[in-house]
Write a structure and sequence with these properties.
It is built from 13 helices and ten strands. The protein has 450 residues and is of the alpha+beta class. The protein is rod-shaped and about 135 Å long.
């Protein structure tokens, strides 16, 4: 080929174009001839489940689609095999019925029916194993943003749990049930799973008891802790361990806990928004446990309620009134009001007031009260009791009487001294006056009188 003497640029351009075609054409053809990626996990349909979970975890969405297609093909083949086996079994059970044109030929006698049913059940167990492994691949595919709906719909359509036997065929039903019960992938598998489920719950129940006792021992060693705090910590520890154990035990029943955990997280947000008042009670409960204004067994007056503290939760406190009524008070109402704890200290002062008539001897009355107070065995010597004339009221001269006693003996001392003072005042001739009012009548002369 001779280039035109006046057009040397044309020769250069044609040569460059041919060189580009020669460089780029072989790789393009090589790319077209490259084989499609092969599945890595479906080569062994009986691959252990745990091993399959580890193998599919690092795969991308494209690689997982290849794996899903491979397992889907195995499942489709197994479902076709089950369908053909059922056609053969139905033909053997009803020889007078003409089999479909595409059904395989079958000259099996009726005595082979049991073997056929055993084979069908075995195929169904193999299908269940394939579905279990396909679901593992689909779970990873969904987690990484892939589309798994076509696969899951197919699985739902072919995963029938019914046993293809006639209702009247008792022997066939018995064979199917026995085969399922004795199969490693059937009854034996679920028996093992149920045993693991119950065993896990038992282990975590024992662990919750041990952990609860350890938590109680730790809280009890803290000098500033209260019985309320101890019960709260023990309850939280035990419940948390049992909830964790229950969630783990569900995995042995082949329950996917990922949607459950996601649902719990979403529900927690909704509940937190809807129960704002309850959350305020929750916060108040935490503050009560932290600052310990009262403890179990204390006599308190809170939110207009008086009684003995019986128990406490995160949202409310249970108080047993003195007439044995159970009163549940929200913690928010307690923390937001005045808290009176009558049993916060070991000792307590008993405040009493006695009145005598203006005509009685005040020194004698004071001596009588002092003798009663000092003679009482439950009255403490330190601090010393106080008996003083306190007030000249409208109808009486009032004495205050303030002995000290142990908190648990408060009402005993109060009632005993009140009774003893009344008896001694009567014996000594000291009058205990009642409210009285003197009325003076002033006569006004009538008009016309001198």
């Amino acid at each position: 080929m001779t280039a035109h003497p006046n057009r040397p640029w044309l020769t250069v351009w044609v040569g460059a174009l041919l060189a580009c075609l020669m460089v780029t054409s072989p790789p393009a053809r090589a790319q077209e001839d490259a084989p499609a990626p092969a599945a890595r996990t479906a080569s062994d349909p009986a691959i252990p489940v745990r091993q399959l979970e580890h193998l599919v975890k690092p795969l991308t969405v494209e690689e997982l689609k290849v794996e899903a297609d491979a397992w889907m093909a195995l499942l489709k083949a197994k479902v076709s095999e089950i369908s053909q086996a059922r056609i053969v079994a139905d033909a053997a059970a009803a020889p007078s019925t003409d089999p479909p044109a595409d059904a395989p030929a079958s000259d099996a006698p009726a005595s082979d029916r049991a073997a056929q049913l055993e084979a069908i059940n075995q195929l169904r167990f193999e299908r269940t194993a394939l579905i279990e492994r396909l679901n593992i691949v689909l779970a990873q595919l969904t987690l990484k943003g892939g589309e798994a709906e076509p696969y899951t719909k197919y699985v739902a359509a072919v995963d029938d749990q019914a046993i293809a036997v006639h209702v009247q065929d008792v022997s066939a039903t018995w064979i199917a049930v026995r085969s399922w019960a004795t199969s490693p992938d059937g009854g034996l598998k679920w028996l093992r799973n149920i045993g693991l489920f119950l065993g896990t719950l038992l282990v975590f129940w024992i662990l919750s008891i041990v952990a609860g006792r350890a938590a109680a021992r730790i809280v009890r060693a803290w000098k500033k802790s209260s019985a309320l705090l101890r019960d709260f910590v023990v309850g939280i520890v035990r419940k948390a361990i049992m909830i964790l154990g229950f969630i783990l035990a569900l995995t042995f029943l082949q329950v996917n806990i990922n949607p459950l955990l996601a649902a719990i997280g979403g529900a927690a947000f909704v509940v937190a928004f809807a129960l704002q008042g309850t959350l305020s009670n929750f916060a108040a409960g935490i503050l009560i446990l932290a600052y310990r204004p009262f403890d179990i067994g204390d006599v308190v007056d809170v939110a207009g309620v008086s009684g003995v503290v019986d128990s406490m939760s995160l949202v409310s406190t249970t108080i047993k009134s003195f007439d044995n009524k159970k009163i549940i008070v929200p913690n928010g109402s307690i923390w937001g009001g005045v808290i009176t704890n009558a049993t916060a200290h070991d000792t307590r002062r008993v405040d009493m007031t006695f009145g005598i008539a203006y005509g009685d001897d005040i020194d004698k009355a004071r001596d009588v009260i002092e003798s009663i107070v000092t003679a009482h065995e439950l009255v403490l010597k330190d601090p010393a009791p106080v008996v003083k004339m306190h007030e000249m009221a409208d109808s009486s001269v009032k004495f205050i009487c303030r002995p000290w006693t142990r908190t648990g003996d408060y009402w005993t001392v109060y009632w005993d001294i009140q009774r003893a003072v009344k008896q001694r005042f009567d014996a000594e001739g000291i009058t205990i006056p009642f409210p009285q009012q003197d009325v003076y009548m002033h006569q006004v002369p009538a008009k016309g009188d001198a």
